[in-house]
Amino acid sequence: MAEDEVAYCLEEGLLVSAPYDIPSDPGARWVATDEHVPCSHVVCRRCESPVVDVPGFALRAEPSTPSECASIYDAVVAGGDAPSQSPWLTSRLSGATSRVYACRCGAYSVGGTRTLRHHGPDPWTCGGHPV
User: Which of 47, 83, 108, 128 is positioned for an S-S bond with 104, CB 3.0–4.6 A?
Assistant: First the structure.
């Protein structure tokens, strides 16, 4: 997408927990503070990978190495039973209402809503949405 063909979410994007639906429309973006439109196109500026998510899970512990982050990313991308088989993810207790986001170099659990500008991982941002 060329720069003039995209628009970006407020506050660099919004991350949300499991009860919120992430829009399937690639053009949907967060434009008003009185509504919650999760960003469906979060990207990592550090590893340049798309940020993927899985609802209904939380991190058991914070990953501290690149291989641990990659393991979480791979489990989320694989889908199916892979997230529940990952030693890094849990669906117990608050995990059931949380959502895990991951890229190749980081992972983050969200319960509720978090703006990327103020509360999310530093290298993550809205990658832009078609207008």
Answer: 47
Task: Say how far apart CA 48 and CA 28 lie, in whole Å.
Answer: 22
Residue with tokens 């991350």, as numbered in its chain: 15
Cα 81 to Cα 89: distance, rounded to the nearest angstrom: 11
CB neighbourhood size of 57 (10 A): 25
**Dist CA 82 CA 75 (whole Å):** 5
CA distance 13 to 23: 13
Contact 113, 98 (CB under 8 A): no
Q: In which residue are the tokens 């919120």 written?
A: 20
Please give the average pLDDT of every successive group of 10 residues along the chain, which has 131 residues.
80 96 96 95 97 97 94 97 96 91 96 90 94 93
